[in-house]
Amino acid sequence: MLIRKAISLGASDARMIPIDQVHVDPSIVDLCMSPRCSGYAQCANCPPFVMDPQTAKRWITNYNEALLLKKDFDPFDLLAHDHMEHFREMFLMVTAMERLAMKRGFKDAAALGAGSCKPVFCPERDCAVLEGKPCLYPHLARPSLEALGINVFDLAKKVGWQMYKILRETDPNTVPSASLVGMVLLAKQPNTGGTSR
Ligand code: SF4
Questions:
Q1: Ligand 1: distance of its center to the CA of 129 in Å?
Q2: Strands ordered across the beta sheet of 110-112
Q3: Could you tell me which of 38, 9, 54, 66 has the C-alpha nearest to residue 184?
Q4: In angstroms, what is the span from residue 127 Cα to ligand 1's centroid?
Q5: Domain range holding 58?
Q6: How many of the other CB atoms lie within 10 Å of CB of 179?
Q7: Spatial separation of the C-alpha atoms in residues 125 and 64, rounded to whole Å
Q8: How far apart are the C-alpha atoms of 137 and 122, rounded to whole Å?
């Protein structure tokens, strides 16, 4: 049911995976620093302020499975000046799926997006959370998989998705497709009778 809903919301593909396939690798977080991402140290959902990989590793063990979502784009779209719209779409999609999972009894469902929420939702101002105030977009802003140290390319390979690395300097003519990946972590709740499929 969750997979069908994800596709209806615009995902190119969605898979349910057991939680033991979701590995945290601290070296993935190092990639936020070099080359330095515009969100690094600029928002509460990015390193070094988001939970560190060791904490993320322990946190993930609270869950049984994960809904993995992929959205494919033309590589030219992901390198265009308005490319943040695609990251926004992924935040919208994973948080919609998080809310739906909660309604279905997965009360601790937790969404992870693609990229930093800072350039998507707060490009013109400082992160409110880092100023000691509530997040301005609490229903939409989430950490990314990479911010917690989850290797997206490794996960994609496990489920048979072909993905290509795209950097700022990538010539879009040299890659056949571009993809963003999000996730919703799910823990089976006792006595709900619900199913994640
Ligand atoms: S959405 Fe804005 S206020 Fe919320 S964590 Fe991201 S940068 Fe901070």
A1: 6
A2: 13-18, 65-73, 178-186, 110-112
A3: 66
A4: 5
A5: 2-186
A6: 21
A7: 37
A8: 9
- What contacts 167, CB < 8 A, 6 or more positions away? 35
Looking at residue 5, what is its pLDDT?
96
Pocket of ligand 1 (CB under 6 A): 43-45, 117-118, 121-122, 127-129, 135-137, 141
Distance CA 105, CA 39 (A): 33
Q: Looking at the domain assignment, is residue 121 inside a domain? A: yes
| Cα 49 to ligand 1 centre (Å) | 12
Asked if residue 18 is part of any domain, the answer here is yes
Going by the DSSP 8-state scheme, the letter that residue 189 receives in this structure is P
Structurally, the chain folds into a number of domains equal to 1
Would 196 be classed as within a structural domain? Answer: no
Query: How does pLDDT run across 78-120, given as a tens digit for each residue?
Result: 777 778 999 999 999 999 999 999 999 998 999 999 999 999 9
Mutation to probe ligand 1, out of 46, 49, 121 (largest number of atoms < 8 A from CB): 121
DSSP string, 26-47: HHHHHTTBTTBPTTTTTSTTST
